[in-house]
Amino acid sequence: MPKVLISDALSDAAVQIFRDNGVEVDFQPALGKDPEKLAEIIGNYDGLAIRSATKATADLLAKADNLKVIGRAGIGVDNVDIPAASAKGIVVMNTPFGNSITTAEHAIAMMFACARQIPEADASTRAGKWEKSKFMGVEITGKTLGILGCGNIGSVVASRAIGLKMKVVAYDPFLSHERAQELGVEKFDDLEALLARADFVTLHMPKTPQTANILSAERIAKMKPGARLVNCARGGLVDEEAVAKALHEGRLAAAAFDVFDKEPAKENVLFSAPNCVCTPHLGAATSEAQENVALQVAEQMSDYLMKGAISNAINAPSVTAEEAPLLKPWIAVCESLGGFAGQVTETAITSIEIEYVGRVGQLNLKPLTATLVACLMKPLVGEGGVNMVSAPVVARERGIKISETRKDAQGAYGSYVRLVVTTEKQTRSIAGTVFSDNKPRIIQIKGINLEADPSPFMLYTTNNDAPGYIGSLGAKLGELGINIATFALGRSDKGGEAIALLGVDEQLTEAMVGQIRDLPQVTQAKAIRF
Fold it and tell me: Can 281 be counted among the known catalytic residues?
């Protein structure tokens, strides 16, 4: 039974979801604020469910020897070291849709607050001043709202704003013109042109190297005079010093910030700026959203630990619960093909081509490709140096090109996977399929047909096709005390190149393989382990 630690405050219903799915739960919500104690026990768990208090740092993950998945109840994963998790093969999930409406509604509320100076008017009225003429606001109706980032949350904001009779324009490099038309927004490819036009600007994008400080001092200076700015997305997207200066100078009429560059924000330049509404990161702070994300993360983690399904993962391809059993035998094929190719490859790889032929091509290929690449590279980078999660990154860092091709069924097999590996010196191919017993079979090596059942210990040889080779190879293995379990043969043509793939009962040492290489007809010999 897999075991999950909940180190932040999640609802009782989320705890029950884990238990109902057969997952053992250790609910210790105070641990998120006690990193030393958390580090002492993290090695006992398969899953870690968190909110924002727990910091899954590289140091913590180094002690998480059994951890398979981290589930963040919420959209932000700033508190998780994604590269460190990926390097250890830990899947990191979030819940990007559970608080979309709540965050969008907070942005709309903040827009109203700074349009009508509601916080200042409230404070003045409570102080008994009754300064009715002082707080002159602006209408929302008919104004232009500029949305920076029109994804899950931004699209909800757009819908609400259109309902308020606003004109909505959007800047998002990933927003297609067709999607913009569906949402009823005008897409701008030029951010500065949008800023010059918008009466209100609201941000709804993640913080990445590309988006950090996207509203720089230079861009804030180009905003429409008297515009109002709302940030309920992420701190660090906006130059806070520049916003404060623009508010003091009156170039910006108002601003509303729910997120800050440094949090918790006990002090900030915006706190003393005029006409600035500040809230303590309340975007997802509704009872409905908190419950939704907690239940969602419990379901996602349970599905992964119990069924192999992956959803809303930051660093791994998605696999549904329905796909998992269909993918399982083909993942075994990919493990065999990648593992074999990696162990016989001796020079730097320049490209990896994968052909998915027949019905396998109709499946979700991302986990298959990730598995194949990981198993291919493992012998080259060392144990622990690569896994299904980190494989694409490791390959990219090494300049290896990866391509996938889907093809209709052809040849003797209705469906198979073919791997072509190109190195600095040669190109080698290997193909495999799934038989009716749902077990993998290797069906081709170097274009030569054969049929081999992968086993834990194997011997692969290439030789010149001539009488007597099988006898001499069998005799040599007998002399070495190695028992043959399976024996698969193939050749290109009579008298040409031949191959043999043998399953044996124990691992061959390098000294044993050296003696096999010394046989007269042998051109290559490799001990293979799966």
Answer: yes
